[in-house]
Amino acid sequence: MSHSDDPFAPAVQTAHDWLRAVADALGTDDHIFAHRALRAWMHVVRDRIGVANSAHLTAQLPELLRGIYYEGWVPAHVPVHHGQAAFTEQFARAAGIGRDEVAEVAGAVTAVLSELFSPGQIDRVFAVLPGHLYAVLCGIEATEEGSATEAERRHRRSAADQPMPLREQVRALGDAVAALARGLEQLPINSADEDRAASAAQEAHRILLAEGFVPTVRKH
Asked: N or C end of the chain, less CB within 10 A?
């Protein structure tokens, strides 16, 4: 089967491009390690940001990486409220590294994803995290859970609780349009690809529903 005849080829290529970018940020040619580090990053973040923020974040992930993100995910169990020690242990175990390496590796992954995501996306997601976890994901070695000031924590929590401003509404709409575009691009010319189109529409609907753009249907 040629590349042009393989409907999965574009998704595989995009996932490889992102993985290569992560490997470059980590300064390694070991893509297996880069994959472990990226997976660890996605899972520790996923478990702590809640359902709506996960919808925004995954809307910009390549299809294959989106599947890894949701692997083993139980929406009813998030966000978890474990402290820094559990956070660091989870990342280290998943990435196959020492606990003292977590900040460096997590910071490198964050840096490259900040470039790959739309501007401000990472900052918005990280705004809901406690300061000490925010620090580790930014590559800062936090030795105590109180390393971020209480004022910083209150600021982030306050920002997360505020109604979504206009620019965030526009961003949410942009995420939904991007999800549709990804699902509809490179469709076969001579054959229908209803599954991809339906999946893209569902992803866009989920993003809009999370932000209240789409009213829920109540059964009478």
From this structure: C
Which tokens go with 60? 């910009």
Contact 143, 133 (CB under 8 A): no
Is the Cβ–Cβ distance between 204 and 179 less than 8 Å?
yes
- Average pLDDT over the chain reads 78
Q: Rounded to an integer, what distance in angstroms lies between the CA atom of residue 46 and that of residue 68?
A: 11
Q: What residue spans define the domains of the chain? A: 3-150, 163-212
- Angle 141-143-145 (CA atoms, 0-180°, nearest 5)? 110
Q: How far is CA 195 from CA 136, 169, 176, 187, 201, in A?
A: 39, 28, 17, 11, 10
- Banded model confidence at residue 150, pLDDT cuts 50, 70, 90: very low
Query: Per this entry, what is the length of the chain?
Result: 220
What residue type is assigned to position 66 of the chain? R
User: Which of these, 88, 93, 87, 138, lies nearest to 113 by C-alpha position?
Assistant: 138
Query: Residue 171: pLDDT band by 50, 70, 90 thresholds?
Result: low
Using one digit for the tens of pLDDT, what is the confidence trace for 59-105? Answer: 999 999 999 999 999 888 888 887 889 999 999 999 999 999 999 99
Of 210, 212, 216, 214, nearest to 52 by C-alpha is 210
Report which of residues 129 and 211 the model is more confident about.
129
Q: Of 24, 25, 20, whose CA–CA distance to 65 is shortest?
A: 20
- Written as six digits, the tokens of 160 are 């997360």
CATH code: domain 3-150 is 1.10.490.110
pTM of the full predicted structure?
Answer: 0.67
